[in-house]
Amino acid sequence: xxxxxxxxxxxxxxxxxxxxCKISASRKLSLKILLLARATEELExxxxxxxxxxxxxxxxxxxxxxxxxxxxxxxxxLCKEMHSQIDSVDEERYDFEAKVIKNYRxxxxxxxxxQDLGGKFKKPALRKVRVSADEMMRALFGxxxxxxxxxxxxxxxxxxxxxxxxxxxxxxxxxxxxNVEAMSDMKGRKKMFDA
Length: 195
Description:
single chain, mainly alpha, 0% strand
């Protein structure tokens, strides 16, 4: 083998490069501008058509009122009719809203079922989290718990000196005659005030 016959070893297959677009950048820009202009025109036409449909529908459902030349009794009747119409329309609106909410709920449930059947949903890996008793109580009860759950700090600390003093007091109380004799002179009273 000579140096001229050398060819590099085959490397891993690379992702296919996108073929270069044969449309120039200025042409792309002009096409985008034309598409956006067309889309805005269609949106404006659609909104105008909706407004016209709305006006036509309202014209069919609500004929213009003629209040001139009506007496009070006729006006009262007209008001009662309008109130009954408003009530019926509100009932229909409520029914439609309930149907829409129910349909959204059904769609959401079906989407969840599709995801479950597709098997693409992966359960996230759960981590072990150390939570102190205070944090757990805050999570369970919110800000209602103001007491600290640190049980060791809440315990009463007992010192050995306190135990010795209590034993001495118990010993002193045992024989009352000795206490009376010890406290009878001025030194005893001084001890009482010092204590």
